[in-house]
Structures are given as C-alpha cells and as structure tokens.
Amino acid sequence: MAPGTARLALPALLALIGLLPPGLGGAQISVHPPEATIPRGGTVQVNCSTSCDQNPKLGLETQLTKKEVAHGSHWKVFELSDVQEDSHPICFVNCGHQLMASMSLTVYWFPERVELLPLPRWQPVGENLTLRCQVAGGAPRRNLTVVLLRGEEELSRQPAVGEPAEVTVTVLAGREDHLANFSCRTELDLRPGGLGLFQNSSAPRQLQTFVLPETQPRLATPAVVEVDTQWTVNCTLDGLFPAAEAEVILTLAEKKLDSTSLYSKDSVLAMASVKANSQKEGIQQLACVVTLGDRDQKREENVVFYSFPAPNLTLSEPEVSEGTLVTVECEAQAGTTVSLEGVSSESPAHRAEFRLNASAADHRRSFSCSAALIVAGHLLHKNQIRELRVLYGPRLDERDCPGNWTWEEGSQQTLRCQAWGNPVPELKCHRKGDDALLPIGDLRPVKREVAGTYLCEARSPRGVTRREVVLNVTYHQNNMAIIIVVVVAVFLGTVSGAAYLYNRQRKIQKYKLQKAQEAAAMKLNTPATPP
Ligand SMILES: *[C@@H]1O[C@H](CO)[C@@H](O)[C@H](O)[C@H]1NC(C)=O
Ligand SMILES: *[C@@H]1O[C@H](CO)[C@@H](O)[C@H](O)[C@H]1NC(C)=O
Ligand SMILES: *[C@@H]1O[C@H](CO)[C@@H](O)[C@H](O)[C@H]1NC(C)=O
Ligand SMILES: *[C@@H]1O[C@H](CO)[C@@H](O)[C@H](O)[C@H]1NC(C)=O
Ligand SMILES: *[C@@H]1O[C@H](CO)[C@@H](O)[C@H](O)[C@H]1NC(C)=O
Ligand SMILES: *[C@@H]1O[C@H](CO)[C@@H](O)[C@H](O)[C@H]1NC(C)=O
Ligand SMILES: *[C@@H]1O[C@H](CO)[C@@H](O)[C@H](O)[C@H]1NC(C)=O
Ligand SMILES: *[C@@H]1O[C@H](CO)[C@@H](O)[C@H](O)[C@H]1NC(C)=O
Ligand SMILES: *[C@@H]1O[C@H](CO)[C@@H](O)[C@H](O)[C@H]1NC(C)=O
Does ligand 6 lie within 6 Å of residue 262's CB atom? Predict the structure, then answer.
C-alpha cells in the first residue's frame, strides 16, 4: 500500500464521522473557510469555532504543519503552512461527545513543462500530421485545459489527463501550413474561485510542408553524343511546392555534374554543361534526382558516346593547270558510308573517288563529301569540303571583250572588255597610232574622238593574248552639214551659171550693136557710088 493512501485514510474516516448528526444539546462545530484554494507550498489560516458551552477543547486534525495563531473561548485559528497537496483538515471538539467539521484545501500550481513534441522536418501536403503536446505537472487538473494552436488559431481544446498529460490532434497538412508555427498552451482556469486564468505556452515549432509529384523528372539530353564535345543536359520537374526548396542532382556515370538550377513558381530546371574531357566510347548512364522534403524522384537515361571523325577528302593536287586530270578522293572510317558529290554511288562504301579534267570553269569549285554513320538508331553525318584552284588564261575572246562596237555619237553606252585567267591577267588597250587608252566602262555620252582601232593585250605569268577592238562612232549632224554644203554649192553653181549666160548674151548683143554702128558709120564716110 502506498504511504499516501495511509495518510489519507484517517482524515477520511474522521470526515465520515463528522457527517454524523450533531450531539445532544445541539452543540455545533464549524470551520472557516470550508473550502480554500491556495498556491502549492502556500499558507492558510483555518478558524475552528464551536457553540459548545462546557469549556471546549478545540483541535485541528491534519498532517500538515500547523501552528495555533489566535484563540478565543469558543474558537481557535490555526495556520497551516507549506501545503503541497490537496487535503481535508478536520476541526474537532469534545463536548460530551466528539464533534467534527472538515474543510477542503485545494492546492494549485502551474505546469512545469508544456511542450509540443518535435514535428517532422518535412510534412507531405495531403497527409495527416499528428500534433502531440505534453504537459508535466499543474494542478488542479480538473481546472487545467490543453489547447493546441496553429498560429493563433485553436485546433483543439482538451483536458489534461495523466502525468505527464499528453494531448494529440491530427490535422491534414496543406500548403498553407508551410512555415506555420504550431504550439500548445495550458489554461489553469481558477476564475470560479476568483483567482483568475493562468496560461502557459510551449515554444512554437515551425512546420515545412511540401508537394513532390509522383512523376519522374524530364531529362532533355541527346541520346548520342560525340566524344570530346561539350553538350548540355536539362532536367525539369513541375508541380513542386515550394519549388525553391527543391534540389536537383545530375550525375553521369555516377559522377556529379556541375549544374545550375532555375526556379519558377512551381517547377525547377537544372542545366548542366558536360565538359568534353574524360569521355569514352560506349553507353553511360545519366541520372537526375530531384529532392524535396524528405523524398525524391529519379530519372535515368542511357547516353551513347561515339567517335566519328570527318571523312578525309583529298584532291590529287589542290592547284592545277587547265587540262590536267585531278583525282578527288574521299575516305572515312570503316563502318561508314560516304557520298561524294558528283559520283553516283552504286554500292555503299567507306571510300569513293572520281577524276576530272580541270577546266577554267572548275576554278574555285568546291567538292564535298559526306560520311554517314548509324549510332544507336541515329543517322549521323559528317562533311568535308575542298576547293580546287585551276590555273588558266589569259583569256580575251569575243565573249569577254567584243571586237567591234558601232555607236552613235552622243548616245550612252557601256564598253565591256575583260580579260580572264588565274592568276588574274593585266589588261592594256591602246589606240593604234596615238596610243590613247580604250575607254572601258560607261561612256556617256559617246564622243567622236574615241573612235578608232585599239589593240588590247592581256598578260599573266601564264602568257599573253591580244585582240583588236574597233570602235566606230557615227554622227548624223555632220551629214546634214554636207547636204547643206552640197545644196549651197548646187545653188551657187546654178546662180553663177545663170549669171555667166546672161553676161555672155549681153556681150553678144553689145557686139552686134557695135558692128551695126560701125557699118552705119562707114556708109556715111564713103561717097555714094552709083550702083
Ligand atoms: C473565528 O470565528 C468566530 C465565530 O465565527 C469569531 O467570533 C472569531 O472572531 C473568529 N476569529 C477570527 C480571528 O476571525
Ligand atoms: C486523416 O485522419 C482522418 C481522421 O483523423 C481520417 O479520416 C483521414 O482518412 C486521414 N487522412 C489521411 C489522408 O490519412
Ligand atoms: C513563425 O515564427 C517565426 C519565428 O519565430 C517567424 O519568423 C514566422 O514569421 C512565423 N510564421 C508565421 C506564419 O507566423
Ligand atoms: C475548478 O473548476 C471547477 C469546475 O469547473 C469549479 O467548480 C471550481 O470552482 C474551479 N476551481 C477554482 C479554484 O476555481
Ligand atoms: C506559467 O504561467 C505563469 C503565469 O501565467 C507564470 O508565472 C509561470 O512562471 C509560468 N510557468 C512556466 C513554467 O513558464
Ligand atoms: C535547356 O534549357 C535552356 C533554358 O530553358 C534552353 O535554352 C536549352 O535549349 C535547353 N537545353 C536542352 C538540351 O533542352
Ligand atoms: C582535257 O580537255 C582538254 C580540252 O577539252 C583536252 O584538250 C585535253 O586533252 C584533256 N586532257 C586530258 C588529260 O584528257
Ligand atoms: C584521315 O587522315 C588522317 C591523317 O592523314 C589519318 O590519321 C586518318 O586516319 C584518316 N582518316 C580516315 C577515316 O581515313
Ligand atoms: C562591225 O559592225 C558593223 C555593223 O554592226 C559592220 O558593218 C562591220 O562590218 C563590222 N566590222 C567588222 C570588222 O566586223
């Protein structure tokens, strides 16, 4: 049997006796106050008084430390101190027989510990969360309530039961609970006893809630990668909460890649640039792990690394003279198929070639060769280009430098004369006779003075070629002048002819008249002879 039970047994028995009907003569005993609530360890004064006439001997039955502090003939005041727990002291008096009255002494004290038990570091949204609050100590328990709180909002209010008392409440965690502060509080309500409401609170605990969808992240990566090249990989996952707390780790062949994460409202994008070094041919595993809260989602992909050098495209000679045979050859690594521009491939092979007779038109011609390789179902191409240089010329023919131009004076014309060749020839055109230069280019207007026969000469290290260019200029206005001159000449001729005839006629008449006058004069001077 516990010692506490023994201590309580006697007063309880006496209290039971006190309920017996009062003794003869109607003598009574009373206690004041009949009930008291005091802080634990506190002090209280109890006044026992009686109506018994016969020199009463009052006493107080208790196991508490007691001291008589005052008395009268029919009363006695005791002081009880260091009251640690509830008790029921009993006043008694012998008045012929024993009279008793008991009082109720209630001790109150505040809880020594109010604690919200630790929350999970991360709580998934949509799952139940149980909040537990432990309260150690505190009395009287029937006046002690435990309140569980989210911020200031009361989630549950329950009596404190047990020692320590544990109170729980289950809440469905939501996004709004992220970073919410949870706590619990005790309320010792002694207001009916006039002492007030006493509250004690636990330290708050902050909750972090999260959403990580049940889907795998998306990995954006090329399926095949050429060794010793730099490439990028992206990993994204949507529907995250809070997205900024998500962590992404990208690994290649179990080695972590340096990545940068970009966050948006509800998603994360991690980008990694994979360095060109230390890659080997073959299959390697690329993985992306998105961690949020205490969970993660993983995605894995295989990346095939291949080596594929560009085909070797060779010209037998990169620079040849016109009319030389050139061999164009393309060769790629075994297992590939080359296609050489200008060759119709009958059967796929990893090398191809053809010959050509280099002409001026082939100067600066590009030859291209493409090699194809299939890696893990992906068709890949590599190209190579070579340019042929052909030495030719100098060339100065009718097409490039027409030899006969006939233009009207004053018209607007363009004189074309160009020499061709590789290396580029030098062109000089001089007029026969005076060495004037041929006016190549725009002639506006065409002048009479440029007419003539020119000798053009194109000269390059490969030789010299010559050509005559005749430039005729016709002039209409000068024909008019000739016509006028002719007309004037005809007119003048006619006029002078007419004047001559007239003059001659007049001279003849004058002569005739003179002859007549002479004859007449002779007739007068000679004597008339008879016929
Ligand atoms: C104790 O109670 C009696 C009876 O009610 C009263 O006469 C007396 O004054 C009280 N004593 C004190 C100290 O209050
Ligand atoms: C959460 O708990 C309540 C009862 O407290 C229960 O009805 C509900 O099904 C639980 N929900 C989940 C998701 O466990
Ligand atoms: C919770 O408490 C912390 C620190 O005590 C405070 O910074 C934060 O704002 C509180 N959260 C809410 C939702 O009140
Ligand atoms: C404790 O609570 C009970 C019932 O709720 C009430 O009757 C009593 O007076 C309270 N005690 C105190 C000291 O207030
Ligand atoms: C409980 O609250 C009371 C006042 O309400 C205060 O005096 C006391 O120190 C508190 N106890 C603890 C353990 O904080
Ligand atoms: C990765 O994301 C960035 C930014 O959105 C984009 O510019 C890039 O093209 C992406 N790379 C791949 C391989 O998808
Ligand atoms: C190349 O062509 C030119 C003119 O078409 C010809 O004169 C020459 O003989 C050819 N050369 C060869 C090697 O066939
Ligand atoms: C291309 O030429 C280089 C050097 O001449 C040689 O090392 C390489 O093996 C050749 N590649 C192919 C596919 O023939
Ligand atoms: C030049 O052209 C003109 C007319 O176009 C023609 O009459 C003349 O005969 C040509 N001369 C030569 C040398 O071809």
Answer: no
